[in-house]
Each structure stands twice: as C-alpha cells, then as structure tokens.
C-alpha cells in the first residue's frame, strides 16, 4: 500500500452531503472556529451560508496550483468522518483510492492490517465483524 498522494478522490466524492459531524464537533466549531461553523445548517455540514443549500464540494478543499493534489484548510479541525477515512479496503476499492496497489487486492486481509497501521493516529483499527 502506498502512502496517500493527496489525489482528493475521497474529499471530492463525499463532500457534497456524504459527510457528517458530531454535535460536539459542531459545538467546538461554533466556539473556536466560527469560520467553519458558518457552513453548518441544521446539523448538516458544508452548507452554503447564504442559501442554506448543500455545497457540491467541501469549502475547505484546495487544489494545489499546477498539480493534481489537494489540501485541507481545516485539516486539524476536520470532522471525524474525514479523519477516519479510509476504514476498509473495500471502501478504497469502491472509491478508486490511489493508495492501493495490486498486491493489496490479492491479499486484502494483510492490506487491511497495513491500512489500520497507517491510520492508527486517526481512528481505531477496523476489525471485520466488530462493526458490522
């Protein structure tokens, strides 16, 4: 498995309503990051502050000029949905994640262990059957 290359597929795929934030995350933004909280409406995130409509793309996602890479302007304050991604190899396959290599598809259990190690600072390890 490769390290993340910041292709942005995960962010562009889910930022149009496929993400959520906890009540505590929203409360924290309200107190400490009012600039982020502006994009919350009725508990939903990445809503247009002027119209209240769902944005097509996360307002904090930035494409680097002259590159096919993206950065996150609220990386340290992003919601857990973002921090936890990706959780499973199947999810990565579905989303066309560029971290995957051919050997990961041949040995998905080993790939899942590798993914859990890579994501150890962001989320608990995924164990098949535990969350299903």
Task: Summarize the SSE layout with pairings.
Blueprint (H helix, E strand, L loop, with lengths): L8 H6 L8 H10 L1 H4 L2 E2 L2 E2 L15 E3 L6 E3 L7 H5 L4 H7 L6 H5 L1 H11 L14
Antiparallel strand pairs: 1-2, 3-4
Describe, in short, the structure shown:
Helices cover 36% and strands 8% of the residues. It has seven helices and four strands.
Polypeptide structure, described:
The protein has helices spanning about 10-15, 25-30, 35, 80-85, 90-95, 100-105, 110-120, and strands at about 40, 45, 60-65, 70. It is mainly alpha-helical and about 130 residues long. It has one domain (about 10-120). It is built from seven helices and four strands; from the N terminus they run H-H-H-E-E-E-E-H-H-H-H.
Structural class label = mainly alpha
Mean pLDDT across all amino acids? 90
* Radius of gyration of CA atoms, rounded to a whole number: 16 Å
Strand order of the largest sheet: 1-2
Tell me, briefly, the overall form: globular
- The string of secondary-structure elements, in order, is HHHEEEEHHHH
Catalogue the unreliable spans.
none
Main sheet specs: 2 strands, antiparallel
Helix content: 25-40%
Oligomer: single chain
Number of domains: 1
Beginning-to-end CA distance, first to last residue: 24 Å
Per DSSP E runs of 2 or more residues, the count of β-strands stands at: 4
Annotation field: number of helices: 7
Strand % is 5-15%
């Amino acid at each position: 498995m490769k390290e993340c290359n910041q292709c942005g597929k995960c962010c562009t795929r889910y930022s149009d309503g496929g993400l959520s934030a906890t009540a505590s995350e929203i409360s924290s933004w309200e107190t400490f990051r009012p600039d982020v909280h502006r994009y919350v409406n009725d508990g939903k995130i990445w809503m247009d502050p002027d119209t209240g409509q769902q944005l097509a793309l996360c307002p904090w996602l930035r494409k680097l000029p002259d590159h096919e890479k993206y950065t996150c302007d609220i990386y340290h304050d992003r919601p857990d949905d973002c921090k936890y991604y990706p959780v499973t190899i199947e999810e990565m396959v579905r989303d066309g994640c560029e971290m995957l290599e051919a050997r990961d598809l041949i040995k998905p259990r080993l790939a899942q262990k590798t993914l859990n190690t890579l994501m150890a600072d962001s989320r608990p390890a995924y164990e098949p059957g535990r969350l299903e």
